[in-house]
Amino acid sequence: MIWLIIPVRCFTCGKVIGDKYYIFKERVEKGEDPEKVLDDLGLERYCCRRMLLTHVELIDDIMQYRVY
Amino acid sequence: MKIKILEKGEDAIRFILGGVDAAFANALRRAIIGEVPTFAIDEVEFYENDSALFDEIIAHRLAMIPLTTPYDRFELDALELDDYTVTLSLEAEGPGIVYSGDLKSDDPDVKPVTPNIPIVKLAEGQKLTFNAYARLGKGKDHAKWQPGFAYYKYLTKIHVSKEVPNWEKIKKLAKKRKLPVEETEEELIITTISAFYLPREFEQYMGKLIREEIVPNTFVFTVESNGELPVEEMVSIALKILMRKSDKFINELHKLAE
Q1: Which pLDDT score is estimated for B164?
Q2: Number of C-beta neighbours around residue B106 at 10 A
Q3: What's the predicted TM-score (pTM) here?
Q4: Which of B126, B178, B183, B223 maximizes the CB count within 10 A of its CB?
Q5: Alpha helices, DSSP H, located in chain B
Q6: What is the CATH number of the domain that holds A48?
Q7: DSSP strand pairing (B38-49 vs B85-93)
Q8: Do strands B210-225 and B12-18 pair parallel, antiparallel, or not at all (unpaired)?
Q9: Which positions of chain A have pLDDT values less than 50?
Q10: Which residues of A touch B51 (CB under 8 A)?
Q11: Which of A4, A59, A61, A66 best probes binding to B when mutated, by most B CB atoms within 10 angstroms?
Protein backbone atom coordinates (compact mmCIF):
# COMPACT_ATOMS: atom_id res chain seq x y z
CA MET A 1 0.00 0.00 0.00
CA ILE A 2 1.48 3.29 -1.04
CA TRP A 3 0.89 6.18 1.35
CA LEU A 4 2.64 9.44 1.99
CA ILE A 5 3.26 8.48 5.60
CA ILE A 6 2.46 5.43 7.74
CA PRO A 7 -1.24 5.44 8.77
CA VAL A 8 -1.85 5.92 12.49
CA ARG A 9 -4.10 2.89 12.79
CA CYS A 10 -4.63 -0.44 11.11
CA PHE A 11 -7.32 -0.02 8.41
CA THR A 12 -9.11 -3.23 9.32
CA CYS A 13 -9.07 -3.52 13.10
CA GLY A 14 -8.05 -0.07 14.32
CA LYS A 15 -5.01 -0.99 16.38
CA VAL A 16 -2.43 1.80 16.68
CA ILE A 17 0.47 0.89 14.39
CA GLY A 18 1.91 4.32 13.51
CA ASP A 19 4.39 4.33 16.38
CA LYS A 20 5.83 0.96 15.36
CA TYR A 21 6.81 1.58 11.74
CA TYR A 22 10.17 3.31 12.24
CA ILE A 23 11.26 0.69 14.80
CA PHE A 24 10.21 -2.04 12.35
CA LYS A 25 12.06 -0.41 9.45
CA GLU A 26 15.24 0.12 11.45
CA ARG A 27 15.35 -3.44 12.76
CA VAL A 28 14.60 -5.05 9.41
CA GLU A 29 17.24 -2.96 7.68
CA LYS A 30 19.74 -4.24 10.25
CA GLY A 31 19.00 -7.73 8.95
CA GLU A 32 16.46 -9.11 11.44
CA ASP A 33 13.68 -11.42 10.30
CA PRO A 34 10.50 -9.34 9.73
CA GLU A 35 8.35 -12.13 11.21
CA LYS A 36 10.21 -11.96 14.51
CA VAL A 37 10.14 -8.16 14.62
CA LEU A 38 6.37 -8.10 14.03
CA ASP A 39 5.87 -10.65 16.84
CA ASP A 40 8.05 -8.55 19.17
CA LEU A 41 6.01 -5.43 18.36
CA GLY A 42 2.87 -7.27 19.44
CA LEU A 43 1.17 -7.34 16.04
CA GLU A 44 -0.75 -10.60 16.20
CA ARG A 45 -3.41 -10.21 13.50
CA TYR A 46 -2.48 -10.35 9.84
CA CYS A 47 -4.37 -7.13 9.13
CA CYS A 48 -1.94 -5.16 11.33
CA ARG A 49 1.08 -7.05 10.02
CA ARG A 50 0.37 -6.19 6.37
CA MET A 51 0.14 -2.50 7.31
CA LEU A 52 3.85 -2.45 8.18
CA LEU A 53 5.01 -5.10 5.70
CA THR A 54 3.56 -3.49 2.60
CA HIS A 55 4.00 0.18 3.45
CA VAL A 56 5.90 2.37 0.97
CA GLU A 57 6.79 5.73 2.44
CA LEU A 58 6.63 8.55 -0.12
CA ILE A 59 6.72 11.68 2.03
CA ASP A 60 10.49 12.16 1.58
CA ASP A 61 9.97 12.47 -2.20
CA ILE A 62 6.84 14.59 -2.03
CA MET A 63 7.81 17.08 0.67
CA GLN A 64 10.44 18.82 -1.45
CA TYR A 65 7.68 20.35 -3.59
CA ARG A 66 5.78 23.39 -2.36
CA VAL A 67 2.10 23.09 -1.61
CA TYR A 68 -0.02 26.11 -2.47
CA MET B 1 -23.12 -14.13 35.52
CA LYS B 2 -19.74 -15.64 36.32
CA ILE B 3 -16.39 -14.30 35.20
CA LYS B 4 -13.22 -16.34 35.35
CA ILE B 5 -10.07 -14.55 34.27
CA LEU B 6 -7.80 -16.64 32.04
CA GLU B 7 -5.03 -14.15 31.45
CA LYS B 8 -4.50 -10.49 32.09
CA GLY B 9 -1.85 -8.39 30.44
CA GLU B 10 -1.10 -4.70 30.46
CA ASP B 11 -3.52 -3.85 27.66
CA ALA B 12 -5.53 -7.03 27.12
CA ILE B 13 -7.62 -9.36 29.20
CA ARG B 14 -9.20 -12.73 28.41
CA PHE B 15 -11.91 -14.22 30.56
CA ILE B 16 -14.61 -16.88 30.51
CA LEU B 17 -18.07 -15.39 30.77
CA GLY B 18 -20.48 -17.99 32.10
CA GLY B 19 -24.18 -18.19 32.88
CA VAL B 20 -25.37 -15.69 30.27
CA ASP B 21 -26.85 -16.10 26.79
CA ALA B 22 -25.43 -14.89 23.49
CA ALA B 23 -27.67 -11.80 23.57
CA PHE B 24 -26.07 -10.62 26.80
CA ALA B 25 -22.53 -11.40 25.65
CA ASN B 26 -23.19 -9.35 22.52
CA ALA B 27 -24.72 -6.52 24.57
CA LEU B 28 -21.55 -6.40 26.65
CA ARG B 29 -19.37 -6.41 23.53
CA ARG B 30 -21.36 -3.59 21.96
CA ALA B 31 -21.34 -1.60 25.21
CA ILE B 32 -17.54 -1.84 25.41
CA ILE B 33 -16.98 -0.79 21.80
CA GLY B 34 -19.75 1.74 21.37
CA GLU B 35 -20.70 3.20 24.72
CA VAL B 36 -17.56 3.60 26.84
CA PRO B 37 -16.49 7.23 26.41
CA THR B 38 -12.91 8.34 25.83
CA PHE B 39 -11.14 11.53 24.80
CA ALA B 40 -10.25 12.15 21.16
CA ILE B 41 -9.43 15.23 19.12
CA ASP B 42 -12.65 16.53 17.60
CA GLU B 43 -11.79 19.91 16.13
CA VAL B 44 -8.55 21.42 14.78
CA GLU B 45 -7.76 25.07 14.01
CA PHE B 46 -4.82 25.50 11.65
CA TYR B 47 -2.79 28.70 11.68
CA GLU B 48 0.05 27.57 9.47
CA ASN B 49 0.56 24.42 7.45
CA ASP B 50 3.27 24.23 4.77
CA SER B 51 3.63 20.47 5.03
CA ALA B 52 3.05 17.95 2.26
CA LEU B 53 -0.20 16.78 3.88
CA PHE B 54 -3.46 18.72 3.64
CA ASP B 55 -5.11 20.18 6.76
CA GLU B 56 -7.85 17.55 6.61
CA ILE B 57 -5.40 14.65 6.51
CA ILE B 58 -3.47 16.00 9.49
CA ALA B 59 -6.75 16.56 11.37
CA HIS B 60 -7.75 12.97 10.65
CA ARG B 61 -4.38 11.62 11.80
CA LEU B 62 -4.67 13.69 15.00
CA ALA B 63 -8.11 12.24 15.70
CA MET B 64 -6.78 8.69 15.46
CA ILE B 65 -4.22 9.29 18.24
CA PRO B 66 -5.51 7.71 21.48
CA LEU B 67 -5.57 10.13 24.42
CA THR B 68 -5.41 9.08 28.07
CA THR B 69 -8.79 9.45 29.76
CA PRO B 70 -8.79 10.16 33.52
CA TYR B 71 -11.62 7.81 34.56
CA ASP B 72 -11.57 8.94 38.20
CA ARG B 73 -12.25 12.58 37.29
CA PHE B 74 -15.24 12.09 35.03
CA GLU B 75 -18.41 10.11 35.45
CA LEU B 76 -17.83 7.97 32.39
CA ASP B 77 -20.84 5.74 33.02
CA ALA B 78 -23.27 8.70 32.96
CA LEU B 79 -25.68 8.67 30.03
CA GLU B 80 -25.04 12.39 29.37
CA LEU B 81 -21.42 13.23 28.54
CA ASP B 82 -19.40 16.02 30.11
CA ASP B 83 -18.58 18.70 27.50
CA TYR B 84 -15.15 19.40 28.97
CA THR B 85 -12.68 20.46 26.26
CA VAL B 86 -8.91 20.03 26.33
CA THR B 87 -6.68 22.09 24.05
CA LEU B 88 -3.63 20.46 22.53
CA SER B 89 -1.36 22.88 20.70
CA LEU B 90 1.61 22.38 18.47
CA GLU B 91 4.17 24.64 16.89
CA ALA B 92 6.89 23.04 14.79
CA GLU B 93 9.36 23.96 12.11
CA GLY B 94 11.21 21.56 9.82
CA PRO B 95 13.31 19.67 9.11
CA GLY B 96 12.15 16.68 11.09
CA ILE B 97 9.27 14.44 11.99
CA VAL B 98 6.49 15.82 14.19
CA TYR B 99 5.46 13.18 16.74
CA SER B 100 2.37 12.88 18.92
CA GLY B 101 4.65 13.54 21.91
CA ASP B 102 5.22 17.11 20.63
CA LEU B 103 1.58 18.02 21.31
CA LYS B 104 1.29 20.32 24.32
CA SER B 105 -1.81 19.61 26.34
CA ASP B 106 -3.30 22.11 28.79
CA ASP B 107 -4.48 19.23 30.98
CA PRO B 108 -1.69 16.87 32.11
CA ASP B 109 -4.19 13.99 32.52
CA VAL B 110 -5.26 14.11 28.87
CA LYS B 111 -2.28 13.49 26.61
CA PRO B 112 -1.29 11.07 23.81
CA VAL B 113 -0.92 7.50 25.07
CA THR B 114 2.29 6.96 23.08
CA PRO B 115 4.65 9.81 22.21
CA ASN B 116 6.03 8.06 19.10
CA ILE B 117 3.19 8.29 16.57
CA PRO B 118 4.39 10.29 13.54
CA ILE B 119 1.95 13.03 12.53
CA VAL B 120 3.81 14.54 9.57
CA LYS B 121 7.33 14.97 8.26
CA LEU B 122 8.48 18.53 7.58
CA ALA B 123 11.16 19.62 5.14
CA GLU B 124 13.57 22.50 5.72
CA GLY B 125 11.64 25.71 6.48
CA GLN B 126 8.15 24.18 6.52
CA LYS B 127 5.99 25.24 9.44
CA LEU B 128 3.06 23.68 11.24
CA THR B 129 0.99 25.51 13.87
CA PHE B 130 -2.42 24.47 15.13
CA ASN B 131 -4.69 24.17 18.11
CA ALA B 132 -6.60 20.90 18.54
CA TYR B 133 -9.59 20.45 20.80
CA ALA B 134 -10.28 17.09 22.43
CA ARG B 135 -13.66 16.08 23.77
CA LEU B 136 -15.32 13.07 25.32
CA GLY B 137 -17.26 10.94 22.88
CA LYS B 138 -18.60 7.47 22.20
CA GLY B 139 -17.49 4.80 19.77
CA LYS B 140 -20.95 4.62 18.21
CA ASP B 141 -20.47 8.18 16.91
CA HIS B 142 -16.95 7.69 15.54
CA ALA B 143 -14.34 4.91 15.81
CA LYS B 144 -11.78 7.40 17.17
CA TRP B 145 -13.67 7.31 20.48
CA GLN B 146 -13.55 3.52 20.69
CA PRO B 147 -11.60 2.53 23.81
CA GLY B 148 -10.38 -0.73 22.26
CA PHE B 149 -11.62 -4.04 20.93
CA ALA B 150 -13.90 -6.67 22.39
CA TYR B 151 -14.71 -10.02 20.85
CA TYR B 152 -15.91 -13.41 21.99
CA LYS B 153 -16.30 -17.00 20.88
CA TYR B 154 -18.24 -19.95 22.20
CA LEU B 155 -16.36 -22.14 24.64
CA THR B 156 -16.27 -25.58 22.99
CA LYS B 157 -14.94 -29.01 23.74
CA ILE B 158 -13.46 -30.96 20.85
CA HIS B 159 -13.83 -34.72 21.25
CA VAL B 160 -11.23 -36.64 19.25
CA SER B 161 -11.72 -40.39 19.11
CA LYS B 162 -8.56 -42.45 19.33
CA GLU B 163 -9.70 -44.33 16.23
CA VAL B 164 -8.46 -41.33 14.25
CA PRO B 165 -5.08 -42.25 12.81
CA ASN B 166 -2.29 -39.95 13.99
CA TRP B 167 -4.38 -38.48 16.86
CA GLU B 168 -1.18 -37.78 18.80
CA LYS B 169 -0.52 -34.98 16.37
CA ILE B 170 -3.71 -33.19 17.45
CA LYS B 171 -2.72 -33.62 21.09
CA LYS B 172 0.71 -32.13 20.43
CA LEU B 173 -0.83 -29.23 18.54
CA ALA B 174 -3.29 -28.49 21.35
CA LYS B 175 -0.50 -28.61 23.92
CA LYS B 176 1.52 -26.21 21.78
CA ARG B 177 -1.44 -23.80 21.74
CA LYS B 178 -1.61 -24.14 25.56
CA LEU B 179 -5.12 -25.61 25.56
CA PRO B 180 -6.19 -27.92 28.38
CA VAL B 181 -6.34 -31.52 27.12
CA GLU B 182 -8.10 -34.35 28.96
CA GLU B 183 -7.42 -37.93 27.95
CA THR B 184 -9.66 -40.94 28.49
CA GLU B 185 -9.46 -44.53 27.20
CA GLU B 186 -11.32 -43.78 23.96
CA GLU B 187 -10.88 -40.08 23.31
CA LEU B 188 -9.12 -36.78 23.76
CA ILE B 189 -11.12 -33.79 25.02
CA ILE B 190 -9.70 -30.39 24.12
CA THR B 191 -11.23 -27.31 25.75
CA THR B 192 -10.87 -24.37 23.35
CA ILE B 193 -10.05 -21.38 25.54
CA SER B 194 -8.56 -19.82 22.41
CA ALA B 195 -9.16 -20.47 18.72
CA PHE B 196 -8.07 -23.93 17.58
CA TYR B 197 -7.99 -25.01 13.97
CA LEU B 198 -7.55 -28.61 12.89
CA PRO B 199 -5.06 -29.38 10.14
CA ARG B 200 -6.52 -30.24 6.71
CA GLU B 201 -5.69 -33.94 6.98
CA PHE B 202 -8.21 -34.38 9.81
CA GLU B 203 -11.08 -32.69 7.98
CA GLN B 204 -12.47 -36.03 6.70
CA TYR B 205 -13.14 -37.22 10.28
CA MET B 206 -15.09 -34.13 11.29
CA GLY B 207 -18.59 -34.88 12.52
CA LYS B 208 -18.13 -38.54 13.41
CA LEU B 209 -14.77 -39.35 14.93
CA ILE B 210 -14.00 -35.73 15.73
CA ARG B 211 -16.91 -33.69 17.01
CA GLU B 212 -17.18 -30.27 18.58
CA GLU B 213 -19.48 -29.82 21.57
CA ILE B 214 -20.59 -26.30 22.46
CA VAL B 215 -20.59 -25.61 26.19
CA PRO B 216 -23.97 -23.86 26.66
CA ASN B 217 -24.06 -20.22 27.82
CA THR B 218 -20.31 -19.92 28.13
CA PHE B 219 -18.11 -17.56 26.13
CA VAL B 220 -14.43 -16.81 25.89
CA PHE B 221 -14.27 -13.03 25.93
CA THR B 222 -11.26 -10.95 24.90
CA VAL B 223 -10.95 -7.23 25.58
CA GLU B 224 -8.05 -5.18 24.25
CA SER B 225 -7.36 -1.58 25.15
CA ASN B 226 -5.84 1.14 22.97
CA GLY B 227 -4.33 2.61 26.14
CA GLU B 228 -6.96 5.25 26.94
CA LEU B 229 -8.43 3.25 29.82
CA PRO B 230 -7.23 0.17 31.70
CA VAL B 231 -8.98 -2.97 30.40
CA GLU B 232 -10.75 -3.91 33.64
CA GLU B 233 -12.09 -0.34 33.85
CA MET B 234 -13.46 -0.68 30.29
CA VAL B 235 -15.45 -3.78 31.25
CA SER B 236 -16.77 -2.36 34.52
CA ILE B 237 -17.79 0.97 32.94
CA ALA B 238 -19.55 -0.95 30.13
CA LEU B 239 -21.46 -3.05 32.68
CA LYS B 240 -22.47 0.07 34.63
CA ILE B 241 -23.72 1.70 31.42
CA LEU B 242 -25.74 -1.42 30.59
CA MET B 243 -27.23 -1.33 34.10
CA ARG B 244 -28.16 2.35 33.82
CA LYS B 245 -29.74 1.83 30.42
CA SER B 246 -31.81 -1.11 31.68
CA ASP B 247 -32.91 0.93 34.74
CA LYS B 248 -33.98 3.76 32.45
CA PHE B 249 -35.90 1.34 30.24
CA ILE B 250 -37.74 -0.19 33.24
CA ASN B 251 -38.61 3.30 34.53
CA GLU B 252 -40.06 4.23 31.14
CA LEU B 253 -42.12 1.04 31.18
CA HIS B 254 -43.48 1.88 34.64
CA LYS B 255 -44.44 5.33 33.41
CA LEU B 256 -46.31 3.78 30.51
CA ALA B 257 -48.18 1.44 32.84
CA GLU B 258 -49.40 4.26 35.03
Answers
A1: 84
A2: 11
A3: 0.87
A4: B223
A5: 22-34, 55-64, 167-176, 231-257
A6: 1.10.10.60
A7: unpaired
A8: antiparallel
A9: none
A10: 63, 67
A11: A59
